[in-house]
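[INFO] parsing input record for Dimethylargininase
[DEBUG] input buffer:
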Amino acid sequence: MSPAAPDDRDPPHMRTARARHYLMCRPTYFDVVYSINPWMDPAKPVDTPLAIAQWERLREVYLSLGHTVDTIDPVPSLPDMVFAANGATVVDGRALVARFRDAERIAEGPAYHNWLRDNGFPELRTASFVNEGEGDYLLAGDWLLAGTGFRSDPRSHDEAQEYFGRPVIGLTLVDPDYYHLDTALTVLDEKTVAYYPAAFSPGSRSVLERLFPDALLATPADAEVFGLNATSDGYNVVLPQNATELAAQLRERGFNPIGVDLSELLKAGGSVKCCTLELRRDA
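[DEBUG] output buffer:
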């Protein structure tokens, strides 16, 4: 019998989950009473108890996956404080606290600063330029992917690079519906991202194509339901449940998509990642 022909197909993708440490803020005072992005319409009713229930479900998912979830106390006058990702960027145990663009959110920065100071992050500072935390800063391996175009000031990119000592890759957003980087791109593991090409300038698309030639590309339908506003532990990807095509792509690539319903929080332009600040202590 002749030897079998070698199988030249790619082996199955082996993904490894890594326990994460997250900070979240219960949406006790969630409401839409002003408009600072295209998703917010104060004329539409908000069901705060439903928002709380959906948030609680997200927290339960994280805990069931073995992640650590700390919570920061919500402040009555800050309805968007639930979007903890915007509060800071935390890398290698160092925290760069957000400086918000809009007056309605400015007080969130000191609240997150105080929590981080009181909970084991002595190396911290508040950004000098507008910088909306992990809304616009996403760690991908050794790089910090940094969004600009609508919120974070491009000068904040140099500031973050000097503070963290990691290369910062600037990416320009061009569609106001995707006003933060975390609405248009998600980091799946150190070498893999998913993103929505139409949200980026031509030059930034070219950068992403060079850095991540094997990236997953989201469809317009999945982008519109904030499918890219997701979190990943390297294997489990928590994302909005309506992002069905992206979920199928993730399964094909060896990830485990877990859909959740955060439709009430989407009324303020936020979803899974917006509710989740990662606290990275180790280099």
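[INFO] Residues 13 and 202 are 30 Å apart (CA to CA).
[INFO] shutting down worker
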